[in-house]
Amino acid sequence: MDFRRYLDFLRGQWEWIAIATTAGGVIAMILALTATPKFAATAELFLATPGYSGVASIDTADNSPFQADAFSQQRARSYVELATRQDLARRVVDNLQLPMSPADLSSAVSARVRPDTVLIAVTVKASSPVDAQNLANAVTIQLADDIRRLETPAGMRIPNVDPVITQPAEAPNRPTDPNIAVYALLGISIGFLVGVTGAVVGQRRRFITDARTVEAVGGLPVLGVVEDSGERGLDWSLAALSIEHALPVERPVILAVTEANEDAGESAAATIELTAALACFPDIIVVDASRALERIDDVSYGLRDEVDQVLVVVVTGRMRQSELRAAVERLRAHDLSILGAVLAPPARLTNSYVNQKFSVSSKRRVAE
Length: 368
Hints:
single chain, Alpha-Beta Plaits, 2 domains, four-stranded antiparallel β-sheet, three-stranded parallel β-sheet, 48% helix, 14% strand, transmembrane, Capsular polysaccharide biosynthesis protein
């Protein structure tokens, strides 16, 4: 399906897509407004390196501030992982006697390193601004103690890295979750996708894909099915034999062929193949019926007195059931039977030519 057909499809199904999109947005807003708000408070740690010299020279290159900064940045990645561990959360819960489990606290904690710095931001979410502030400060203090303990060598009193709380957490003024804009965007997007998917599935279910559906919807028997023979292509021989046995023998019959989409090439190819397959049956005229209908009487080719039945073969399986049902019911009022996606007349064959064919056929039958 190209972009233009995709737009045409969306335009044709816009009611259902709009309903699904609106429903998705409304449901998302309801979830956002009924969700428990979460407040986030953030504290900040600076990783100092007291064991490194404050003067950079050739003799002190290993102890220079540049080396200290690189060392702290490498360590900071590990400290971020420590902040979200349940061991750290368990110590905070035990120290503060909090009415929550270590798992719940650790899941509410997040930490990250500020880009190109030795600063670690520790964020904790809670259901109230005060709880978020207190928990963020408690987790940051515990993280600083753990870093200091891990970075102090045995027998030494000065740690290699000394974390310093440079910014304590403050009580937030507004909740961070739920984000109404994000909820609405996700709801609208999901609703739109559901609407498009439902429209595609519903449309495909309304299409005719097999002979049984043709008979059930159109109320007409299937004369023949053209099978795909693989490398040899479509095999019209069995279909032609089935059609020949199914057609009435007491009068000539027009067998019109149409496609179930806008591609007239399929009906043209089918007409040629079926004409060749039925060449030995003089009472059958195969007509390409792929052009627009001007008058419903045109379907009978001006031969309403001689022929009271027109059979149209479905070439492809992309015809809608509603279109087939409407075509059949409309033409039954004129004593005609048709299978097709639209009301399609024959190609520009003159009535004299068709009459001549029927006259020859009738004379041959009388002679016999």
